Amino acid sequence: MRDRFTITIHDVNGVKQYTLKQFVKKFFIYFSAFLVLFILLSSAVILYLYYQVSELDRKKQELMKKNRQLILENIDLKLNIDKKTAELQQLSVKLENIEEMMGLKPEEDIDISDRIVKVSLTTSQIYFLFKNVPNGSPLRETVITSRFGYRKHPVNGNRDFHPGVDLRAKIGTPVYATANGIVEYAGRKGNYGKLIIIQHNYGFKTLYGHLSRIKVKTGQFIEKGQLIGYTGRTGLINGPHLHYEIRYLQRPLNPVNFIRWKKLDYKKIFEKERHVQWESLIRAITRDYQLAVLRQL
Question: What's the predicted TM-score (pTM) here?
């Protein structure tokens, strides 16, 4: 018992004795247990914090990646906006040219989409326009042998103004009306030989000269594409062909512009043929088409 120290504790419950060796042993056991628990808890906290840091770093990388994508998208959007702005400016300039050709005064306070509608026609109105204004060729096959304008006459050799075009054709080739109208003249007339003149709507006329046979009569209503005669070599001529003219208010126009006139790009003629008052013509086309629709109701 010499190496042991006894501690005696008296309380209401009795007497308890502890030896120093037992006390140290229990203290070591409790301290070891506490230390192990502390290490485990510390490890758990460290692992949790490490996970949180890793998660924050991952989110940071994702945000940086999204930020780079947004920067690239913003650059692309800006470039696209600049491109669309340039295209809109070009469209505005083209629209101003069309308005000028048609005699329309550009209005600054009108949206460009409204201005486009103002100078545009519906598909039905375009069809109505092409039925009533000369367009296309009077022959199935079109080869121009003499153009519109000043030239040396092929027969008398004089320099004169050619008010139409000559289209190559064998004798007896069918000739068709290029728009609806009324036959103003059908018969012989000077150097034209056998001639047909058709009066169309909106101030237009077409002339078909050097015919061999005439299939219509004066005063007869003609529809676009209707057979009106056959080519020949009557009048002052050096070989068989069709002489074709288009006039607007008695003024000769270049028939080539109307022969090549197409529905899909009908506005091109506004630039090529400026002697026609296209603004008033389109207003009249729109009005007459609406009236025609109302009559059918």
Answer: 0.61
